[in-house]
Amino acid sequence: MVDVSKAQDGGIIKKILTEGAGDTPSTGNEVSVHYTGRLLDGSVFDSSKDRDQLFKFKVGTGQVIKGWDEGIVTMKRGEVAILTCKPEYAYGASGSPPKIPPNSTLEFEVEMHDFYGEDCTESSDGGVLKSTTVAGTGLSNPREGATVKISWVMSHMDRELEKRSAEFILGDGAAHDIVPGIETALLKMKKGETAKVTVKSLYAYGNVGNAELAVPGAADLTYLLTLESFEQAKYKYEMDGAEKIKFAEQVKQWYQRRVRGCVHIHSTILISLPLAPVI
After folding, report:
1. What's the pLDDT tens digit per position in 80-90?
2. Number of helices and strands (H, E) in the chain?
3. Choosing from 46, 114, 119, 220, which is the catalytic residue?
4. Is residue 91 annotated as part of the catalytic site, yes or no?
5. I need a surface site. Which of 35, 50, 170, 195 has the fewest CB within 10 A?
6. Alpha carbon of 29 to those of 48, 77, 163, 204: distances in Å?
């Protein structure tokens, strides 16, 4: 048995019943588990198995009790473990009437079925999945038009194919040979965040691939991506006269590149000058 609480205060004691395999989930991953919750006297107060339905949630985001947010991230696929959670890692002094009394230490037998990264696509098609490995800072994400400074290592089937850094305006990535999946993920990242990003071929180099980088056609790629910094763009209503003129010229240039097939700009997304600092 081992204490898996971040504070190492004995708040979450884990006992592995069946070993799992592979890696463990990251903060923000959606996990699928079966579980049975018991009081220390052995009485069951809840079980997903009774409902015959896996329980799904985003780990580390406060959707479940603290004992789960900190304990589940230590589990591998196929692992079965008992998490014993003290009251401060469960339902605290209030409990959860009528089944869980106040100040109850709880035991959860948890079976990890699967987990996957945050789906960053607008259509939720699984084309860009992000798993945070190093948390970022601040509350804001870069929006279209922000100037971003990034670095990444790209690989295919565990073979490293590219290591680069770039500074560019978000929404203009194609002009810098940056695949759409990277820009899609950046919209969900915080300053200083590093994430493992899985990009399906549709959001990378498609069926053609990239001969220069030795990327085959229809290849799904993995990026270890870091958003080093960003400078947020101003909205049009925040601009003075000179800035609006500069903005109009920039939009004109972007559309000229679009006609040449170098960049795609969605008409429904605000594109602005990167003049305002990050708050």
Report:
1. 999 999 999 99
2. 4, 13
3. 46
4. yes
5. 50
6. 20, 13, 25, 22
Reported as a single tens digit per residue, the pLDDT across 165-208 is 999 999 999 999 999 999 999 999 999 999 999 999 999 999 99
Q: Residues 6 or more apart from 33 whose CB is under 8 A from it?
A: 48, 54, 55, 56, 72, 110, 111, 112, 113
- CA 203 – CA 195 distance, rounded (Å): 17
pTM: 0.69
Whether residue 45 lies in the annotated active site? yes
| CB contact at 8 A, 12 and 85 | yes
List 13, 89, 100, 108, catalytic entry? 108
- Secondary structure class of 244 (helix, strand, coil): helix
Could you confirm whether 271 is annotated as catalytic? no
62-106 per-position pLDDT tens digit: 999 999 999 999 999 999 999 999 999 999 999 999 999 999 999
> Active-site residue 57, yes or no?
no
